[in-house]
Please model this.
Amino acid sequence: MDCCAKHTVILLLCLISTGVTTVYGFTARFSQLDILEKVSARPVVRSGIVTAFIIVLSMTVSLAGLTNIIKYGYGYCGYLAIAIIIVPFLTVGIYKNKKFDRDSAYREQVNKMNRT
Model:
């Protein structure tokens, strides 16, 4: 067996191991939800439902294409970061800078915190 074939077999085994571990972890975590206890009292049935859902979800992501999901997802994460992180930091920062300039007690409190 040449080096490339060994590498391919190892990568395939890693993929299978990761898939099994992920499905098992999700099943162990989510089969205890209250919603599923209403569906069936038997733990085996609940685990089967969760496992089937995780496998279907994984297949859907696979069919949609992970590259497309990452491409569009990162773009939307950037827009969300502007709205959720950057704008609030800018507004809070401007407010605190103005308060620092006006209020000597606040300035003393901030300077005291910076010394310790």
